[in-house]
Design a protein that fits this description.
Chalcone isomerase, 31% strand, two-stranded antiparallel ribbon, alpha+beta, globular, 191 residues, seven-stranded antiparallel sheet
Length: 191
């Protein structure tokens, strides 16, 4: 049996271990409202690290939570580049596919200007036709792995193309100079 004195000597060690435990668990995942996102993940052989996360509000309600990832070796956020990246959006309300397609087209037309938009219009329309309705709890993922742009709903691939210009345009909806929400963009970019 250990003496009370020997247990007291171990107290600093236990205190130190207790301070590490919350940090370790906090680094494995983050929670935004009711949505949980890992801080590290791997997809098709590519490792990603969480850059930032946030909550997108539309009018008076919380529309969705998001998390933005980049390839682990990327030193700083580079949403408009060829760096592998991934955006996950977790929805809190039902949204129809047609609404996604319209917002995508309208936002890109505003962001790019009509002339630049016309150069990728057919690709944007093809992308928009792949959207599906979402219900609370569904999650869209937009990713660029360095070669392929993918859109997935609940891990089911709906669209893929080898098109960096389209990838950069789509990521600009949330992460560009004129995003859907400045605060949401800044949270995703860890600002």
């Amino acid at each position: 049996m250990r003496s009370p004195l020997s247990l007291l000597r171990l107290a600093p060690l236990f205190a130190w271990l207790l301070t590490l435990a919350p940090t370790t668990f906090a680094q494995e995942q983050i929670v935004v409202e009711d949505a949980t996102f890992p801080t590290q993940l791997e997809e098709q052989g590519q490792s990603y690290r969480l850059v930032g996360s946030g909550l997108f509000r539309y009018l008076m309600w919380d529309a969705y939570a998001g998390a933005y990832y980049q390839a682990s070796e990327s030193p700083e956020p580079a949403p408009q580049s060829d760096v592998p990246r991934r955006l996950e959006l977790h929805y809190f309300h039902a949204i129809e596919a047609e609404d996604f397609a319209k917002v995508t087209e309208d936002t890109l037309r505003d962001n790019l200007g009509n002339e630049a938009y016309q150069q990728i219009r057919q690709d944007v329309e093809a992308f928009g036709r792949q959207y599906r309705d979402v219900v609370p709890g569904d999650r869209y993922t937009l990713s660029w792995d360095g070669e392929t742009l993918r859109l997935a709903l609940n891990d089911e691939t709906l669209f893929d193309a080898n098109d960096l210009a389209l990838a950069n345009a789509l990521f600009s909806i949330w992460l560009g100079d004129e995003p859907l929400g400045d605060d949401f963009r800044d949270a995703l970019l860890g600002r």
